Amino acid sequence: MTALARRRKPRSFAMLTLAKFSLGMGDRFAHQAKAQLRACQKAAELGVEIIPVWNKSNREHLTISSEPLSVRSAADAAVQALHWTRPYHVDADHIRFDTVDRFIPHSDFFTIDVADSIGQAPDREALRAFVERHGELAGRIQIPEIAKPFQTQPADVERIAGKHLAAVREAGRIYRRIASAKGEGKFITEVSMDETDSPQTPVELLIILVALADEKIPLQTIAPKFTGRFNKGVDYAGDVAQFETEFNDDLAVIRFAVSRYPLPANLKLSVHSGSDKFSIYAPMARALAKTGAGLHLKTAGTTWLEELIGLAESGGAGLDLAKEIYQAAREHLEELCAPYASVIDIRAERLPSAEQVRGWSSEEFVAALRHDPNDPRFNADLRQLLHVGYKIAAKMGGCFLSLLKECEPAVSRNVTDNLFERHIRPLFLAAGTRPGS
Hints:
The protein is of the alpha/beta class. It folds into two domains: 21-302 and 419-429, Aldolase class I (TIM Barrel, Alpha-Beta Barrel), CATH 3.20.20; 305-409, no CATH class. It is 49% helix and 11% strand. The protein has helices at 33-45, 58-64, 68-82, 124-133, 154-182, 202-214, 240-260, 278-291, 302-314, 316-331, 333-337, 354-358, 362-369, 380-387, 390-396, 398-406, 408-429; strands at residues 21-26, 51-57, 89-95, 109-113, 139-141, 150-152, 188-192, 221-223, 268-271, 295-298. The strands form two sheets. Strands 1-2-3-4-7-8-9-10 form an eight-stranded parallel beta barrel, surrounded by six helices. A two-stranded antiparallel ribbon has the order 5-6. Helix 8 (278-291) crosses helix 17 (408-429).
């Protein structure tokens, strides 16, 4: 890299710091916080600290008719009940400027979503100033641990910055709104750029990070776009080897950017829709073990699916309700899927009919829904449909919630086992790292 930029010191204020490993845990109905926390406790007992971050988006609150306070209350109650003494956080997930205010009193982690601003025309003067200020981004860029250097021209820097500068400035506007209310350093900032059309190249990610540093956003995690499909509730669909290359390259870019620009030293990758992506956990674990990097893995609806599994496993009224939810979801397929079109792939012809499901035993329903790729009865289309079908349960109100309580032993066991055995063990425990390593 020509004219290497010296790392400027970040602003000096005490900052709430996110730990090395953290797990974003969605809880649609705010009933499984204790079961989720038990999974983190089990990891701690094995010597790996994984900090829980309870997350819920504005869209989910609107669907459930809940308030951000409910997430904070559930998290606080679980921490107190299980005597958790390590840090924990509550994430205002995928917030924008027009939705952030309702989360500010109750959250200490904010996922700033600016994907809609990517590609918007930037302020021409701001773009010109960025390119002039960062002449080091044009020329030969050699990033340690990426074998082939990158060669860029000023026009490349202008093009890439032009695509992302409006989004970065919007992230700054949202960050400053939160900081004005909570105080700088009193919350954790994540910037999400994953819900866009194409993955960022290493050079694009570097320029985005430089722009975020210029905007004085002390982001601690960034969620880039990766190649392949990150569909809700099912495994990664794509070229695993290509993903591994991208993941390692992104880790290298973050280390490089942190060493040269005023970004927090603990800045790490965040993988969104990260639940159930079993085929990429081994490559991720290898990279974490090799580099000592941190990771934020964000899960969400997988806990809601484990609630359904627990209901079905309990039989009786629980199984009947699970079947009723499936039937209603099948009938409202298009309506439920439309908001999630970019993160689900459902082929209607592979969905069982409502009549078939009505005849299923508890074991058959559970086998179709539980994410076990080795079980031939597993139906990924059914699982994705029920993943977005939580709206059906929300409309049932007290009927659904009372059965959750009635079937609590089976529900909580499945929630804990799913997070620990299918997510924490193959990813975080397999990384082979320990707190402080």
